[in-house]
Design brief:
The protein has 219 residues and is mainly alpha-helical. Helices cover 85% and strands 0% of the residues.
């Protein structure tokens, strides 16, 4: 179980440092209804992430073949997922420009005014982004490969969820508790993200993708 935890930590942190959910969180918290929309976004993010990693784990355990064959198949899938993450990061860096960042922020700018139910739905939908799917697939494969008991699988799924959503949960909870203290920090973070988040997220995707490939090759 400890070895799986070590595999999940970089995956969860890579998910946490993804630019889109962080940016969406900031826009939600800078809206006219940060408490209501923030809680809806938090609930959708946490529920969606946990559900996705649980389904990925179940799918990994349902792979056909005997144990040895399953382990070989999981290893090959990890290599493919890692390669896809590396390619996604490289493509993101290659296509990065100011116009793309502006288009990406246009719909996020009004996310806080959509209402609680749409914001909850958007948070759920963000879990089917290519990078999120690749990360949660890698996490599910890592958990299923260990052949642990059900309750251990649940603990690992909760661990991944906690890591992957920390950059959404912490700012929202902090804003609800101390809104005046958080507002200037949210605005400064928003300005920094506008110029750096895409490159940072893509670089992390490349590094974590290489890590997943290594895990698949070494077994």
């Amino acid at each position: 179980m400890g070895q799986v935890m070590l595999q999940l930590i970089p995956l969860g942190l890579a998910a946490a440092l993804s630019s889109i959910p962080i940016t969406a969180t900031i826009f939600v918290l800078l809206s006219d209804s940060p408490r209501r929309s923030g809680l809806a976004f938090l609930a959708g993010t946490v529920l969606g992430t946990f559900t996705a990693v649980a389904l990925a784990t179940v799918a990994g355990q349902a792979l056909p073949g005997r144990q040895r064959q399953q382990d070989d198949l999981v290893g090959k899938l990890e290599v493919l997922v890692g390669l896809a993450m590396v390619l996604l990061g490289v493509i993101t860096l290659a296509r990065r420009n100011g116009r793309e960042r502006s288009r990406g922020a246009s719909w996020l700018d009004n996310i806080g005014s959509f209402g609680s139910v749409p914001v909850f739905g958007i948070a759920l939908a963000l879990n089917v982004r290519p990078k999120a799917v690749l990360l949660v697939t890698a996490a599910g494969l890592a958990i299923s490969k260990a052949n642990l008991r059900f309750e251990q699988n649940v603990v690992l799924a909760v661990l991944y969820t906690a890591l992957a959503t920390i950059t959404v949960v912490v700012p929202i909870v902090a804003t609800i508790i101390a809104p005046a203290w958080m507002e200037p920090r949210l605005r400064s973070t928003k300005a920094w993200i506008a110029g750096h988040s895409t490159a940072l997220s893509a670089t992390i995707s490349i590094l974590v993708g290489a890590f997943v490939m290594g895990a698949g090759i070494t077994g």
